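Reopening this one. Same input as before:
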Amino acid sequence: MNRTAGDPEAACERRGRPRSAAADTAIIEAVLRMIEDGASIAELSMERIAREAGVGKATVYRRWPGKSALMLDVMRSLEARCPKLDGDSVRDDLVALLEFLRLGGLAKRNSAVLRTVVSHVKAQPALWAEYHDTVIRDRHEALLAVLRRGRESGEIRTDHDIEAIADLFVGPMLARAILHEWKELPEGLAEDIVDMVLEGVRPKARAEVVG
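Same output, byte for byte:
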């Protein structure tokens, strides 16, 4: 027997149940907690995630079609907004961007999740592209904008690829935060990296011609 229009439950199913922000938070928090405790991606079944979050498995699947899509939102949940840059000093803006990365790397949860999830998401090209476009791109474009301003002001040389120069700034911080978690991220590291790299990417002074 088909349910009629007068059946409240059937009507609810037809309209689609509104998503509960509390359920979303509970599910993502459950994944974060398990990864932080050492669980691998393979160990995180949708059933286990639902059980840990205190929701039904159907609640999880209504929000995410599979584990990869859920992991993408887990990664997004850790991303803070890129810092606002003053635009007055190329050096200060570079320091602000690297300090933003340093503080993220200091958070045990951020580092654990990124190391665990990045490899999983990167194996899914479409998901990795979406994460890059919605999270990483803005941060990268902000860095490139600062470097272009440095070129215009004569503080950064123009004879090298700007993407390679960008990697020189962020590479050391990301390597410590994600690849070498045993290495410290001390206060002042952002300034040290920026000053060392700026020293190498400044335009070379022309040698004076002696007549």
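So the earlier flakiness isn't reproducible anymore. For the record, The radius of gyration is 23 Å.
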